[in-house]
Each structure stands twice: as C-alpha cells, then as structure tokens.
Amino acid sequence: MCGIIGILGKHEVSPQILDGLKRLEYRGYDSAGIATVNRGQLDLRRAVGKLINLSDALVHAPLPGRVGIGHTRWATHGGPSVANAHPHRAGRVAVVHNGIIENFRALRDELTTEGAQFSSETDTETIVHLASQYLEQGVSPIEAARSTLKRLEGAFALAFLFEGEEDLIICARRGSPLCIGHGTGEMYLGSDAIALADLTDRITYLEEGDWAVLTHDGAQIFDAEDRQTNRAMTRINLDTARVDKSGHKHFMAKEMAEQPGVLQAAMGCYAGPGSTGITLPPELDFSATDRLIMVACGTAHYACQVAKYWFEKYAGLAVELDIASEFRYRDPVLGPSNMALFVSQSGETADTLAALRHVKPHVAQVVSVINVPTSSIARESDVALPIHAGPEIGVASTKAFTAQLQVLALLALQAGLQRGVLDARDFAAHLEDLRTVPGYVAQALDREEDIRRLSELLSRARDVLFLGRGVMFPLALEGALKLKEISYIHAEAYAAGELKHGPIALVDKDLPVIVFAPFDGLFEKTVSNMQEVMARQGKVLLISDAQGLAHAGDVPYQLQMPSVPAFIAPIVYAVPAQLIAYHTALHRGTDVDQPRNLAKSVTVE
Ligand code: M6R
Known about the structure:
Blueprint lengths: L2 E6 L5 H11 L6 E8 L2 E8 L2 H10 L6 E7 L14 E3 L2 E9 L2 H10 L11 H12 L4 H11 L2 E9 L6 E6 L4 E4 L4 E4 L11 E4 L5 E5 L2 E5 L5 E2 L4 E2 L2 H4 L9 H7 L1 H13 L19 E6 L1 H18 L3 E5 H4 L10 E7 L5 H10 L5 E6 L5 H4 L3 E4 L12 H20 L5 H12 L1 H9 L2 H12 L3 E6 L3 H16 L2 E6 L16 E5 L6 H12 L4 E6 L1 H7 L4 E4 L8 H20 L17
Parallel strand pairs: 16-17, 16-18, 18-19, 19-20, 21-22, 21-23, 23-24, 24-25
Antiparallel strand pairs: 1-4, 1-10, 2-3, 2-4, 5-6, 6-7, 7-8, 8-12, 9-10, 9-11, 11-15, 12-13, 13-14
The structure holds 5-amino-5-deoxy-1-O-phosphono-D-mannitol.
5-amino-5-deoxy-1-O-phosphono-D-mannitol binds next to helix 9 and helix 17.
C-alpha cells in the first residue's frame, strides 16, 4: 500500500521516477508526487488521481535534478487531495511514506504547540516537521533522520530528501517492505524490486528496523540499534520482475489467461512429470501435528477455506481457520503440536504478518504459501512455499488464487500420506488428478464468450447472490468478492443450505443468483436450494458440468464447465468466478485493474 521510489542518478531522475511509479501504481493510485533537489533547491510536484495527472503536471512544470523521491498513495489519514499527497515538505526536508504513524496525534499536538504549521491531514506530515525541527537545531541531515525515526511509532517505510544535499537519500523500514537497488555510480530504493526492474537486478532487502544512508556510491545500512550492518545483495531475475500486459486489455485479463501455464509451472516445481511423490522441504512434517491453524485475508483466506476441506478429508487433520485481522485480536488457544499456515500473494499483508508474529512463539512450525519469496511473510516463516505465479498486478487476485489452491492441494496430499490417511494408491490417484488441472482450467477459460454474454444481465443488477455447498461455498465467497471489488455491484455469498435461514427473504424477480454446483455428492442438495430460489422467481445461473445441467432440468441460465474430479473442482470453478466479475465490470465500464478505494498490497492493519 503506497509505493515508494528513490533515485540517486547520473542524469535527470524525474522521468525514471515516473517510470518506477508506473510499476508501483498497483500499490495505490489516489495521488502521486515527486520531489528532487536541483542546484541545492528542494522542489516537488504532486497531483491527485492516477499517475497520468502527475505526468501532465511535470510536462507543464518540469522538475530537474539528479536526486529524487517519488510516491503513489493509498489514502489512510486524509482523503485524496494535493495537500495530502506525498512528498510532504517542511523547511529543508521532504518525505515519502508508506504505512501509519500511530503516535501522529501526540506528535502533531506537540509540534503545533512548538509553532509548526500543518498543511495536510496526514500522519506523514509530522515526520517532516520533526526532521525539520532537528535540522533547525543545527544537527546534520543523518542525525535529524535518525532522531526523527526514534520518535515514530507504527509500521512504515519512508525516505527523506534534504535541501542542499544532492548526494543523499535516507530511508527506513519498520513493518513495511523496502529494498535498495545498486547501479553503477547510481543508487535506488523502492517498495519492491518490481519498481526498480528497469534500473538494476542487484537488490538488497532491508530487514525489519533497518535504516540506510544512500549516496551515489553506495549504501550504509544500520540496524534498529543504529549499529552499522551488512545485508546481502541478491541478483533478481528481471524477467520475473518486469510487468506488462502482453497485448491484453488489462492485467487481470492477462493474469487469468496465464493460469494454465502458472499451474503447470507450480506443479512442475513440486511434482514434476513422472514423479511419484511431492518434493517439499524435509522439515515439513504433518505427522505429529494435532491442529493446523490457517490464517489469511481476502482471496487468500478463501483459498484456505477450500483447503480446510482438503486437509480434513485427505489428511484427517483438524483445521482452524480465521481471517488475520480477527485472529490476532482474540485469544486463540495455541499449542506446541500445532502448525500455523499463512497464505498471502504479496507476503506483505500487514494483518497476516502480524498474525504470524503473534503465533510464532507458541506453535511447532510456521509455514507460508506465498507468491513473493523475498517477502516479509516468507522470510519470517520456518518453511516458505512459493506458488510460482509471477507478478500479479491486477488488484483482483486471480492466478494467485488458483496457484495457492494448487499448492495447498499438494500440501493436503502430502499431509494425508505422512499421517497414514491416504494410502499410496489414493495418493497417486489424487496426484494424477492435480496434473490435469492446467488442461481443465484452459477448457474453463474457453467458456469466456458465454460468460461475457451472461455478464451483460448481471451488469444491470443491483445485488447478486452466490450460492455453493462444501468446497463450492468458498468459491461462492470468492465470486462475490471478485464481483464487488471490480464491478461495485453489491454481492453476497451463502452456503446454499443456509439460505432458508434468512437471506431467502431477499429473493425476487430482480435478483440474479449464481449457483456453483458440479455434479458431486452434494449436487442434489444444492439443486433443491436452487429450486427454492426459482420458486420465488430468482434469476438463477447454474454453473455445473454436463451431467449436472442435465439433471437440474429447466434452469433459466446455465454455464457448462468441464466434468472434473471432485478434488480439483474448486480450482477449475475459480475461472468462471473470475470471468463473471471481469466481464460484468467491463459492461459497467469500471476500472478493472485499479478499482476505486483499493490497493494491491495491503500493508496497513
Ligand atoms: O497479498 P495477499 O494475498 O495477502 O492479499 C490478501 C487480500 O488483500 C487480497 O486477496 C484481496 O482480497 C484481493 N484484492 C482480492 O481479489
């Protein structure tokens, strides 16, 4: 949430910062800004809305300089406005910031009493006033930044730029990710390596509590106790860090289309063609685990909800599941035989990370399923399992969801084998089922034109209801979430059997009801609930396979999926959930990749 970039360059940096911000825009797009120092003078440009507005502002009023910082904002304190946009400036210092300064009210009161004049509603502005006050006392910029950092509480990443200093950026990481890029006679910093992909492949990830002094020649890194420290430099694969739409209209369209390849790649990494077992770190042992605690947010949480069925069915393992923001603030009973499993695409979701830190001292092992192997969640886990989906830029999570399901399915099978619940034959049969997923997902994607037509009807609805039973219930939840976040249509999901306990009162002739029901052991029961909706004139869209559609009889709207083994059905049925949301959003003309109010990586609690 919020993207940060900084460059100490050999040439004008504004154009490069703007390019970096384009790659970071998925982190927030309420406003954006850049500050540079040129001939000793600190100056800045800021604009509300998408980056194109900042780009236009820079055409009219260029910002020269060989050192600068930039920011894309996802508003927390104070709405989107030029005054609230970053960088913020007071006196000789400018700052860009991601995260929340929790003690900003106390600091603001103190600074106001001492004469500081605030011009924004943000928590960030306290940082520049603090630093400026230290500078006024005659200390060096490095000392001013160090003293300022000591006064801040909360989780954040930030960067300071100082008037008169053309060879200096100071940055700090506490709770929010930040990395340093190494060039030749140039240095960079970014919220993630993607921001720096066009500049360098040599990256140093700052550790929790680190702060760093960057000059054109290099970086001096200090830990939370201000001891100078070394952090490893790694070479990243630029191909996996580069992001483009590859001819698709949206990142979401590209990422949905990539799913067969992504799932094949994930499978190849854990159970390549011909292998009879699953290759996982040897320390990952479910045999002595008495309870699996799964924690995540949003779409990743729905992946966990599907996986709960798998761990219970195939591994006989008791599963406790919660959303991270709730889990942390209750008093979960944790024990030394528990394993905790965290799922996150970004690996930086603040709620999930906080939940991980909360359980770590109390459980046997902390495992994560992540897409970004260098992320905080990955680094703080005992075992981190990548889903190999590549960068996911569209705010609506698609390929990460199906890849999370694929890896979780592999884990459930491994757990089943280790715990003696699955015998070798059943294990092998289910593993073979998983190998067929990419092909079936490709077939599901082929139904796009049917879905596009059906979505026209949905695009005119005020509300949409999604129903499913068993593993299809989390799919219904995921379908409703996708529709809400990119089409802005109110959608709800219910376990089909729960409908009659209240929500059926909502059903009338104007309510589209989408039912996920493959022809499995729960099919007849789901279809009975569907009939109850149709008897009340609800407009049902049944998503099933050929057998299911034949058995269901006369249903107003139908979508045929390939017939697939029950085990893998949730992965395949994710595709219509995604495509329905995508095409409904297109019919409504909303911004699919950057829906209002949202950001991709949610690094505030
Ligand atoms: O990066 P994470 O997987 O931890 O993100 C969790 C949620 O914020 C994320 O899944 C969100 O719900 C998506 N926008 C849904 O499409």
